[in-house]
Model the fold of this input.
Amino acid sequence: MAGGIRRNAGSLPEENSEINIVPFIDIMLVLLIIFMVAAPLATVDVDVDLPASTAQPKERPDEPVYVSLQPDLSLHLGEEEVAREGLGVAIDGLTESDRETRIFLRADRAVDYGDVMDVMNLLRDAGYLKIALVGLEKTQGAEAGTGTAAADGADEAGVGDEPRPGASAAPEPAK
Done:
């Protein structure tokens, strides 16, 4: 009666062909925590009350260049305040005079449309024709809250991009 424990007494144990995914899940959870901690650090800290948009989000570059227009009509390049006269020079220094860089224009909801167009004209006069307007994502049936674009999931509708149904983008500047 004793000795009937092993089926293959003289051979190696059977190979297990199942994949152990526990280490993979551990790594994914650690990466998730890292990205959750790092995401707020990558946002711009200039508070802008953005209007909502239903346009499909575009792919965001690694280091976006944000120009923010505040309700008091002050301009910010990234987090630094700049004068209107020095906007072109400041962007040239930031982009190393690369005129093909897409500029993300964020304007507060309270800013007049004419003032937004004035900033777009300043950018165009400086040679930057790729301007993307930044707004908050608008969900179906509900309006998005207020906050900064990066924290609330901003979408960009680029000037001169192909229009999409339901997208509202500024017309392409005349050549």
Notes: Helices lie at 22-38, 87-95, 113-125, 149-152. Residues 54 and 140 are 9 Å apart (CA to CA). DSSP finds four helices and seven strands in the chain. The longest helix spans residues 22-38.
